[in-house]
Design goal:
Blueprint (H helix, E strand, L loop, with lengths): L1 H8 L4 H11 L1 H16 L4 H29 L1 H22 L4 H13 L4 H13 L2 H32 L2 H20 L2 H5 L16 H30 L5 H21 L7 H16 L8 H13 L1 H15 L5 H30 L1 H21 L1 H5 L26
Helix pairs in contact: 2-7, 2-9, 3-4, 3-8, 3-9, 4-5, 4-6, 4-16, 5-6, 5-9, 7-8, 7-16, 8-9, 8-12, 8-15, 11-12, 11-15, 11-16, 11-17, 12-14, 12-15, 13-14, 13-15, 13-17, 16-17
């Protein structure tokens, strides 16, 4: 398995693009905590701190597909570099003004979020040109999905280290600077500089005119609900079982399960249409989420959380491959950015719903929201299977000799 990933990362520019993207995406894992800690240190109440942290997440969700469409039209370097600088300026402005006046603080947070460069979608648009073969692209998607678990573990740790070494304001500024640094690593690489989207048909819906992509986004929304719910429910579970690091153990087990599942999934060759495989993986994900409301003792709960995470990264990796196959020509970055938005909006809704459920029905009710989200994603994919598996409803890509529809490997013209 390690050899397979090693061969992938030895491909020219692959390691650089992956590492730069992960560094550039650290603000997504740092901002919520950094904003709350900074505003609390400046005397803001939990209400204002929580509201501005939520505003950041909403702004990211709005900005990603807008910037993704701009990347498809104008290329990666100009759009992403400018966006990263604007986002860093938003973080710096927040660190300078603090929570008062509140409208200016809100404007700073909104700028930091809406200008977040669409590195996630941009990387997935680059993989077919960099790696060339379907197996290696599929492996890269799996590695990408698994690496997100490391990302969201490292982000809060970096915030804590910055606060301990300097201050809460320094943590906010560092969040923006890391976004700039990672973005520059990506956009100065030759594949990013040379990448151009295919010619696109003029249409105000852009990527959303694909029925297959609409189905995927609906499923991703419900996966996001599950992710947001399990994060909140884990905190409620920790409070009910003595507090301390219990919630962190549960979430760490969930992340470890996702990391293991993603690496194992990417290590083997998968034959057949990925649309059918995605449906099977989503059903497995739903089954593994279903025992969470049992909320047994901590060791067993950690095991259930790890099991719930095991099919998460494979499901996302397969979804990325299907997105690439269903995005209309010239909209691939926008399409991947819509996935980020769908999951992010779902996660926000899942967190809020699980909070209400846990407050009124206890910890089991909070985890039941996560289980319901996983089940709903599977139902969407099962019920709409014909749309996903009929290439005539998508981009009409070429078929391989076995009759399976191949992913796109010529998304660009060279500069």
């Amino acid at each position: 398995m390690a050899g397979g990933y090693g061969d992938l990362l030895r491909t020219p520019y692959a390691a650089r693009l992956l590492a730069g993207t992960l560094v550039g995406r650290l603000p997504n894992a740092m901002a919520a905590l950094a904003i709350v800690l900074f505003l609390r240190a400046q005397g803001a109440g939990y209400g204002l701190a929580g509201s501005l942290s939520a505003l950041y997440g909403l702004a990211v969700a709005v900005g990603q597909p807008v910037l993704g469409r701009a990347v498809d039209r104008r290329g990666q370097p100009r759009v992403m570099a400018a966006a990263a600088l604007c986002s860093a300026a938003g973080f710096a402005l927040l660190a300078a003004v603090g929570p008062r006046p509140a409208p200016l603080a809100a404007a700073a947070v909104a700028l930091a979020g809406i200008a977040t460069p669409p590195l996630e979608g941009g990387l997935r648009a680059l993989w077919p040109d960099v790696l060339r073969t379907p197996d290696r692209v599929q492996k890269a998607y799996a590695l990408d999905a698994a690496a997100q678990e490391v990302l969201f573990t490292a982000g809060p740790l970096l915030v804590s280290l910055a606060v301990a070494a300097a201050s809460e304001a320094a943590a906010v500024v560092l969040t923006g600077l890391l976004g700039v640094a990672g973005t520059l690593v990506v956009v100065t690489a030759r594949p990013s500089r040379q990448w151009r989207a295919q010619e696109r048909a003029a249409h105000w819906l852009g990527a959303l005119r694909s029925r297959g992509l609409a189905v995927l986004l609906c499923a991703c929304f419900f996966v996001g609900i599950a992710l947001g719910a399990i994060s909140l429910a884990a905190v409620a579970y920790g409070d009910a079982h003595g507090g301390g690091p219990v919630a962190a153990w549960v979430l760490a087990a969930n992340g470890a399960g996702a990391l293991a599942g993603g690496l194992l999934y990417g290590a083997r060759h998968w034959a057949g249409a990925p649309e059918r495989r995605l449906t099977a993986l989503s059903l497995a994900l739903a089954v593994c989420y279903s025992p969470l409301p049992l909320t047994p003792g901590v060791p067993w709960m950690a095991l259930l959380a790890g099991l719930a995470g095991f099919f998460l990264a494979p499901t996302l990796a397969c979804a990325f491959l299907v997105v690439d196959r269903h995005a209309p020509a010239g909209t691939v970055t926008e399409a991947f950015s819509w996935v980020v938005t769908a999951i992010g909006v779902g996660a926000a809704g899942g967190t809020a719903t699980a909070g209400l459920a846990a407050q009124h029905g206890g910890t089991s009710a909070g985890f039941a929201v996560a289980a319901a989200g996983g089940a709903a994603a599977a139902v969407v994919l099962v019920a709409t299977g014909r749309i996903l598996t009929d290439p005539n409803l998508g981009k009409q890509p070429e078929k391989d000799r076995n009759g399976a529809v191949e992913p796109r490997f010529s998304t660009t013209h060279r500069a």
